[in-house]
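Entry 14. Structure prediction run on the chain below.
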Amino acid sequence: MLKGWLLALLLTAAGTLSAAGLLADGDTVAAAVVLVACLAFAAVNSPLVFPASLGAEEAGRRSAADGRPVIYWRPGCRYCRRLRFRLGRDARRAHWVDIWRDPAAAAAVRAVADGNETVPTVVLPDGRARVNPDAEWVRELL
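Output returned:
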């Protein structure tokens, strides 16, 4: 669980330390700007921007029942973040699985990505998969 939050925690700590140094020098405006920028970047790189993550088994069951794709992702992945933001509100209709939280999910991604844990990986209910797909293709599936 902590692994997904590591980048966000590091960014928050770096922003806090940088802002404290700027405050000590008397530059309150720069300190505020640095702190807000680091906190915003930390939030974007945290699991908060993604819909609630399911386990691979549960996501597979739900996908079979409702026909929606399963999207495997991991925190800090810029391609996952890009897909998430390009999908906008439609992203909530997919079943998202964090491969760092579920070893079975990581194994599922390795099975379709030539042994690599390349994300985002989208798996359709019929078993077809696409690694790092175009957002418009995913939106059509939703």
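The first strand starts at residue 70 and ends at 73.
Filed with the rest of this week's runs.
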